[in-house]
């Protein structure tokens, strides 16, 4: 008989005790947007490594803080260098 549960496919070999996580939101979103969506939808403030890293505001320039809509369609106003 089949046991109730879920099946997970991984890109690399897992060891017993390895942590598995699920993305609840699009990781291409900036940190603020991801956290706001998680707070609204699931009522928690994410403290994962990615959300805790202040430099992770997807596609933002670390110098001028302007956001680029995507890698394929960059913001031409971002500073160069």
UniProtKB/TrEMBL annotation:
<protein>
    <recommendedName>
        <fullName>SET domain-containing protein</fullName>
    </recommendedName>
</protein>
<dbReference type="GO" id="GO:0042799">
    <property type="term" value="F:histone H4K20 methyltransferase activity"/>
</dbReference>
<dbReference type="GO" id="GO:0032259">
    <property type="term" value="P:methylation"/>
</dbReference>
<keyword id="KW-0489">Methyltransferase</keyword>
<dbReference type="GO" id="GO:0045814">
    <property type="term" value="P:negative regulation of gene expression, epigenetic"/>
</dbReference>
<keyword id="KW-0949">S-adenosyl-L-methionine</keyword>
<keyword id="KW-0808">Transferase</keyword>
<dbReference type="InterPro" id="IPR046341">
    <property type="entry name" value="SET_dom_sf"/>
</dbReference>
